[in-house]
Amino acid sequence: MECLMDHIVLNVEDDEKMISFYSKVLLMPPERLDEYRAGNVPFPSLRLNADTIIDLFPKKLWRKSARAGGGHENLNHFCIVLNKEAWQELLELLQANSVSIEDGPVQRWGAHGTGTSIYFRDPEGNLIEAKYYETDNSSEKCLPGS
Asked: Order of strands across the sheet with 103-110?
């Protein structure tokens, strides 16, 4: 199954320090930064390329899910984007292999706006989001054989 990386999510302790590093040192343009600072969206993003963003989850978004011991894992989850047909095929494959869907289908923000997502874990517990966009042509690249 061919797909694109949509976004990764980093759990951060100091959101302003991380925003500054990624935007000023790595020169990644911030997205939704004004909306985040105004409290209108729950997290800011930084543009890695036309198809991929890095979301920075502040502590309030991840502290309840942190593992015992008080620390946190930096990688919250990663997201792959597929076209709708391949996404539905993935749902069937997950069911056939007894992989539990932890959340979804739900509408979530991503590199191309809002799309439909499911969340599930790999055998080592890494959280994976799989998404499709109704109106985004970039996901057409994920068609089998393309």
From this structure: 30-31, 45-49, 52-57, 4-11, 75-81, 127-132, 113-121, 103-110
